[in-house]
Queue: 3 jobs
Job 1
Amino acid sequence: MKKSLWAIAISLVPVVSGWAAASVTVNQSGAGDFTTIQAAINSGASLITITDSSNYVENLEIGSPDGLGGDPLNGGPPVTLTSNQSGTNRPVITPFASKSYVDVRQTGSSRQAGFGLFANNSVVSNLIIEAQPDLGVGMGAMYVMATNVIIENCLFRIAPGTLKRLPAQNPLLFFAEQLGVSGTQGDVLPGGRDCNGCLARNCEFVGVAPDAGSLDMTPDNGGYIGAKTDTPPGFGQGSGYFRMDHYSDGRDVFVTLEGRYFHHDQDYGLFPSNFGTGAGSINVILKKCRLDANGKFLIRGRGANIFVESSVFTRAGQNISSDTQNSAIGINWPDNPGVHAPSGSVSNCVFYNCGSAAYQRAYFGGVNNDSGTTMTVDHCTFVDCLSGVTAGSDANALSQTIVSVLSVSNSIFHQIGDSVVPATDAYRNTLTNGAPELVGGLYPDWAYGLTNFISGTKWAAVFNRYNWNNVSQMIIGNCLVGSIDTEDTRSWDQALTDNTQTGCRLFAGYDTNFVGADTVTRGTPVFVNTDPDAPNAFQLAPGSPGQGLGANLAPVLAPKLGISQIGNQLTISWTQPIWMKGSLKSTPSLSSPVWTTVPGVSNNSVAVTIGAGNQFFAIRNP
C-alpha cells in the first residue's frame, strides 16, 4: 500500500496558561490535596487537577441544578476540572449511584447521568467519562445545564462489565434547558441556563464498552448493533452520543461540536431537537468531525437547525429501523402544529457507505431534507451510498404548508446504490472481502435491500424525490455523477407504472421536482485516497473529471507541525484529528527517503538534539 505524507506544514504557536488562585490536586493514593473529585469540587476550588490515572467511582456535580442563594439562575461559580494525563492514562470517572435530573422536556425521574454540570463558564478536560447502563433506568455519562461550557480532550464511553443498554433519553452527553417554576413540560425558565455557547472539541464518543469483543456483525455475533441480551449476543450498549431536547423561547441557542470522533452506536448519533413554538432557534454547528458506524442517523435536527462542515460520515443506517426521516444527515419537522421547521447546510463533507440494504428505506443515504425548510449541500463527495441526496415532505408537514427544498451544488456522486466492505448486508452481517455477493468489490444495496425496504420506499437514486409530486423541490447546480449500480433509465412515469425496481436511478421523481437537472455531468471521478480516515479522503486526483468539485478536506484536517528551538534542542509538536493514527517520523533524505519513527514522543511533542546533516520530519501513517 502506498504510504502518504500527512503533514509538512510548520508553524509556531504560543501557549498561554492561566492559573486561578484557588487550585487543588486530586490523587487517590493521597499524594494530592484530596482523594476524591467531589471533595475537591466541594472545597470551592476554581481549578482542580487530577494527577493520577485511577478509576474514580463517584457521582459528580459542579454547581447546583436548582441554583444557589435562592437564585435559580445562579448555578455556581465556574470550575475547571482537568488532569495532567493523556490518552489511555486519563483518569476514569464512573457513576456510583442512580441520579436523576429534570429539564424542560423530562420533568420526572427518567433523565439520569453520573456527572452533572450546572456552573456557567466551566471547563472539563483530559478525562474518561463513563455511562453506567446498569444503574437506575440507565445512567448517561454527562448532563450539562449551563452556558459557555468547554469540554475537550475527553473520552465518553460505556462502563466495562455492564450488561444493559442506555435508554434513548440518556445519551453519553446531554445538553439541557432549565425547567420553569411550574414544573410542567415545555415551561422554560425565563433567562434560564440553556447551554448556549457550549463547545465540545477533540473528544471521542463510543457506544460500546472497552471490554467489548469483535464489533463486526456475523451470524454468531451481534457486534456493535446487537445487545448483550440478544441472540446472538452483541456489544451495543449506547443509545446515542449527544442529545438536546429544547423549547425555543425567544433566544437563539448555539452549540458547537468540533474535532470529535463518534463511532459504533447501535441507535442514533447526534440528536438536537426543538419542540418550542416561540421565537428563537436551536442551532448545532458540527465541524472537523468523524462519524462512523451507527444503526440510524449520524446527525439529525428535529426542529433544530444544523450546520455541518469539513467532516467525514461513514456507515450510517446500518440497522433495521422504522424511522422515516433519516440518512447520515437529516432534518425534519417535529410533527407538532406551530413547531419550528428546521433548516441547515452541509459543506466540504465526505459520505461513504451511508445507507444499507438492512435499513427499511432506499432513500436513506447521505443527506435528507425530510420535512425541513431549506437544506444546502455544497462541495461534498458521496461514494458507495444507497442514495445520494433526498428531499420530500411527509403528509403532516404538508398540512402545515412546509415546503422542503434541498439545494445541492458542486458535488460528486459515485457508485451510488452500492456499499463496500465493511458495511452491513441485508441480514445485518458485516461485509468482508471475498464475499460471494460482492460484484467487483461492490455490494448492490438497492437490489439486496428490496426484501427489507417498505413498500413505496424502494427507490434508490442519486437525486431522490420519490415520495410526493408536490411543490417541494431539489435544486441542482454543477454536479458530477459517476457510476450508478445497474442504472434504471426508464422515465419516472414508466417506472411507477411498472412498479418494479430494476436498478438504482439518477433521478427518482418527476421532472418538475428538479431544477437544474441539466447541470449534471457524467464522468468517473478518480481519487488519490479512498481511506476515509486520511486527511485527504476522496480528494480528486489531478486530471480527474470534476476538478473543483467535491470535498477537499486536506487543508482542514491535515496534521499541523510546530517547531521551537533553544540552543541545540529542537522541540517538535503537532496536532491532528483524534481519529487519525499518524506518528512522527524522520528521514535524512527526501530523494530516497527511509522513514523511521522518532522515539521519546509524549503528548504529540518531542525534543530532539540538532546534529550533523539534514533530518526531515513528517506525520505519516503508517
Job 2
Amino acid sequence: MKIVKKKSESVWRWAILLLTCTMMIGNYYCYDIPAALNSQMDDYFGKPGDFETLFSLLYTVYSVPNVILPFFGGYFVDRLGVRLCLIIFALAITVGQLVVAVGLSAQSWPIMFLGRVLYGLGGENLGVANSAILSIWFEGKELALAFGLNLSIARLGSVINNLVSPELTNSINIQFAFWFGVILCGGSVASCLVISSIDKHLDSVMGGQGHHSLLATEDGDPDNDKEIEERNKVLRKTVMDKAEGHADVLQARASIERSPSFASEPTAAQEVSFRDALTFKQIFWVLTLICVVVYGKSFLLVLYILLIISFSCDFIGCVLPFNNIASALLLERDYFKEPDSACHLTYTNQCQSDSNPPVNCPTSKWYQPPLPTNYTVADVDCTDDYFSDYCTVTFCNRQSDAQVQASTIMSIPYIISACLSPVLGGFVDRFGARAIIATASPLALVVVHIFLGFTTVSPIGPLVGQGLAYSCFAAVLWPSVGLVIEQRLVGLGYGIVVSVQNMGLASFPLIIAAIYAGAGDHYIPEVEIFFIACAWVGVIVGLYLNYVDYYFMDSVLNGIKKRRLSMEELEAHHRASLTNPLFDDEEKVKTFGPNDRIVEAGRNSEGTNQSTSRHRSSELFSTSMIH
C-alpha cells in the first residue's frame, strides 16, 4: 500500500474537489435569485413605483462591504485557519439568505437588505477559503484542473438558479423559491463540515506534517506558532508558483491573492503597506480602469489604472448589472411585449373568456393579452388567486411562460463562460494578445447592446456574443494583473482590483434604476444606451492600453516574451528555494529565457543528481525591465 506523505497524493482530494464544487454552487445560486425573479418580485410587492431602486439596492448592499473586505479575507484564513474559515463563511451566507427569505416572506425591504449585507460578508470570503483549501489538496497541473473545474461548476450555480427559481415560483410560490436558497446554503455548510473532517483526519494520519496544512495557532506555543507560520508560508508560495500562469487558475486564485497577507511573505526590507499602491506601474491602473467600466507615480502606474477601468466597463458596467435586470429586460423586449393600442377585448370592460376573445391582437404567445379597461398591468398581481385563476388567467399564464423563457435565455452567457473559460485560459497562456482581447471584448459588447437596444433580432445571438466577450475578458484580466506588478505586491494589487470592482457593482445598479425610472419604467432603449456607452469607454481605454503596452512595456501583455530576472531577484529566489521543503530533494533548474539557465545544486534521496525545469509566470515577466 502506498504511503501518503502529503494531501495531494491522497485519493480523498477528489472528494474535496466535489465538496468544494457543491459548496460554491450554493453560493452562486443564492447571489442571483433576485435577478431570476425580478418581475415576480415586482408583482409580489404590489408593483411599487420605486421597485427598480429597491431591487437594485439588494445588489448594492452586497457589494458595499466588499469594497474593503477583499483586503482582509486572506488575513482571516491565515490567522483562523482554512477549516474554521470555511465553516464561518458558509454559515454567514446561510444566515444571510435566511434573513433575506424572512424579509421576503414579511414583505420587508429593510430586513432583506440586512440579509444581503450578511450574505455579502460571507460570500466573497468563502471564495478565498475555497481557493485556499484547493491549493492545499492539489499541486502542479492538477491544481490548474481543480481550479478550472471548481470555477466552471460554481458558475453553473447561477445557471441552475435561472432555471429552477422561476419554476419553483410558478409551481409553489416565490417565498419557497427564496427558502430553497437557504436549503442550498445549508448544503454548503454541510459540505464545509465534511471537508473540515476529512482535512483534519488526514492531518492526524500524517502526524500533522502533510504539505500545505494551513492551520491556525491553537495552543499559543511560540515554537508551534513558528512552525505553523513556516507551513503557511509554504502554502502561500505554492499557490503563487505552482499554477504556472494558467488563466483559469489565476482567475480563481484571485480570491486568495486579494489579501496582501496571502502574498509571498515579505522580508523586513520588503514590508507591504497600502502606500505601496502608489508605486504600482501605469499598466496596473489601466487594468483597474477597464475593470470599473466592464465586469460594472510613474507612467506605468496610469496604465494599470486604465486596464482596471476598462475591465469595469466590460465586466461591471455591461455584464453583471445586465444580468441583474436581464429577465425583466427580455420580458419587455421579447417575451411579454406590449401589444399595439388597437388590440382589445370584444367587450372591453369584461374579463377575457371564450365568449369575450381579443380582437386585432398578435397571435404570438410572447405578447401580453389585452386586459379589461378597469385594470392596468400594474393592477394585476398574478400571485393573487383572483387574478391567476379567474379574471386574468390568460394574462398570468402567458406571463408565467414568458418569465421561464426569459430566465432560460439569460443563462446563455454563464453557460458559455463555464464551458469556455478553461480553453480560453490555455489559449491566452500560449498566444498572449491580452491587451488586444481586452479591447476586442468591449467592442463586441458594443455590438451586443446595439442589437439588443435597437433591433428586434432574437436575443440568443447577442447573448452568445456577451458570453464570449465576458469569457475572453475574464481570461485575460487576472493574468494581466500578475504580469505588471511585483510579486510581493500581487495580493495588494488584486485587492485593489476587486475593491474597485465592488465599487462599480455598488453604484451601477442604482444608476441603471435611475435611468429606468427616467425612461418611464422602460429598459429599451435608454438602459441599453448606457451599456453601449460603458462598452465604448472600455474600447477607448483598451486602445490606449495597447498603445502603452507596445511603446512602453515591450508588449508584456500582448506578447509571450519572457524576461530575465535581476541578479538581486535571482539571489532571492535561490535563497528561498534552499528552504522550500517542496523542492529539497531534487536539483532545481530555473529557465528565465532561451539562453539563461540557473542550476541550483541539490541531490535526491539516493544521492544522485537530478534535473527538472520549472517555468513560473511570476518569474518570467518583469514589472521593471523587459529584455
Job 3
Amino acid sequence: METMMSARTPNQASDMPKHVVLVGFMGSGKSSVGRLLAGRLRRPFRDLDQIIESTSGQSVQQIFKLQGEVAFRAKERAALRDVLNSSEPIVLAVGGGTFSDASNRETLRDALTVYLETSVEEILSRIGAGEEKKKRPMLRGPSVEDTVARLFARREVDYQQASERVTTDGRSVEEVTEHIVSELGLERRALRNEDLGPGEEAQGVPEQTTIEVPEPPQLELVGSSNEVDVRVETSSHDYTVHIRPESGAWIAEGIAKLSRGRRIVVVTDTTVGKLHASDLMFHLKATGKEVSILRLEPGEGSKTLGTASRVYDFLLEHGLTRSDMLVALGGGVIGDLTGFVASTFLRGCDFVQVPTTTLAVMDSSVGGKTAVNTPRGKNLVGTFYQPLGVFVALSHLATQTSVEHAAGVVEGVKMALALDADVYRFMTKSARDILEFSESELTRAIAESVRLKAKVVKADEFESGVRAVLNFGHTVGHAIEAGESFQMLHGQAVALGMIAEAQWAEMEGYSRNISSSLRDVIEGLGLRSDWRRCQISTDAITLDKKRKGGGIQLPIVNSVGSFDLRTITVSALVEFVKRRSGA
C-alpha cells in the first residue's frame, strides 16, 4: 500500500494546520475527497473554481473563452488569497493549474497541501472524452490523451512540492479520505487543537484516539484470598461482583437483601436449570420470597424479541411489579435476554446476574449491556441497564466443557491485552492452571478481568468512547459467528476475530507482533487460531452497530496494555477479510 510521503518536519506535522488544501491534476478527485474530508474534520469545504464562478458571475469555461487563461489566473490568485484569509479553518480544493503558479504556492506556504497523485491512465479513465471534455477548458486540441500527457508532465514537478501526497489510483473516494486522515492523524489533531467556545466540547469519535482511563478499583478480599469482591461504579448505581469458590445459601441471601419486592422470577435455560436451579430456588424460598422459575431453550436461538415477549407474558401472569426482581441464572444469552427484559418490562424492574459460564463471568454479566438478536445480526436491539449485583461461584463454572471454559477465558485475555500488560503476562503464564480450575489462579483471573471491565465502565458507561475497546475482535468475530450460522461459541469467534483484526492493524503499520502473541495464547487455550478457514459473513460487518456512516470504529492494540481507537472504512475491512479468507 502506498504511504504518505512528507516534506514536513515532525514538529510541523504535530500541529493542526489552519487550512487543508487538496492539489492535483484534473480528475484526481479533489472536490469529492475534499467534501468527505471536511465532514470528517468538521470544517467547511470550499472549491476554488466555484468561488471564482460565484464572484465573477461566469463559469470557468466562459472566462477562458471570453477573457483567456491569463485573466483566469489573475482571478484565481485573488480568490485564493481571499479564501485563505478566512479566520475559520477550511478544507479547500483548488484547480489543476493553481499549484503550478509560484505565487499561489507561496500563498499556500502555511497551509497543509496534499497532492492527490493520480496516473495519466487513471485520469483518462475518469475524465473520458465526451461531456466531461467540454467542461475542461484546458483539454483543447484533437487528442485528449496527448493534451493530458503534456499538461501532466509540465505540472507534476510542481505538485511534488506539496506538503504531503497520497496515491489515488484504484481507490475509492472513501479510501483516499481514510488514508489521508489515518496517515496524518488529522481528526485526532483537529480535536486537540481546535478552538472551542466556552462550554463547547468536540463531538464525534476521532479517527485515532489514545485513551486514558481511570485507575481500576482495588480487589477487596473477603475472608480467604479466594473470596473477592469487586465494586462497579456507574451513573445509575454502584454494585458489587461477589466471587466465591462454592455456590450455596450466600447467593440467595445476597439477592434477598437487594430485592425490594416480595416476588422473584428466576430466568434460566433447560440445561443450566437441571444443574443449578433447584439449589438456588431452595435457598431463595428459605428467605421468605415468593419465587417462580422460567426455563427457556438454550442457545442463541432464544435471544430474540419473540422469546422476550414470552418472558413478558410470564411476568404478567405471575403479577410482577416494578419493585420485584428477575434473576438471570445462566450464560451470556440468559444474562443479555433477562437484562433486556428487566430494562423494558414496566419501563424497568430490578435484576441480578448469577452467571454460570466463564464468558458471562469475565465479561457480559458486568457493565449493563443487554440485547437480543435479529435475523440481520447479533445484539442489534438492546439497552444499557445495570444489575443490582453479580454473584459468581466457581463451582457453577466447573460444569462447563473445557472448550466452553477456554472460550470464556478469551474475554479476559482480550481485556488484559488491551488494558494491562501485567495481567496479560499473568494470564498467559497461568493459562494451564486457569483451564484446570486452579482455585487461586481462576479466582484471580476472574477478579482481574472484572476489575478491568469495571474501570472501563466507570470511564464510559454508554460506549461513547473508551468502552469501544471491549469490542476488540468482535467486528470480525460477529461476522464469523454469522457465517458459521451461530454454531460456534462466542468466545471462539472473538478469539479468531482478535487475531484477524490484529493482523489487519499490523498490515496497516499500526501495531507489531500482537497477532503472533495472541495466536500463541489462543492455541495454548486449546482453541483454533486460523480464522481464514471459517465461513465469514461480510454482510455482518456492513451491519455492525459500531458503524459511523461509511466507517467503523475498530480498537487497535498497538502494544500489550495499550490501544487506540481508529475509524476505518467498512470497505477496507471487508476487502481485507475477503482477500485473506476468500469470503
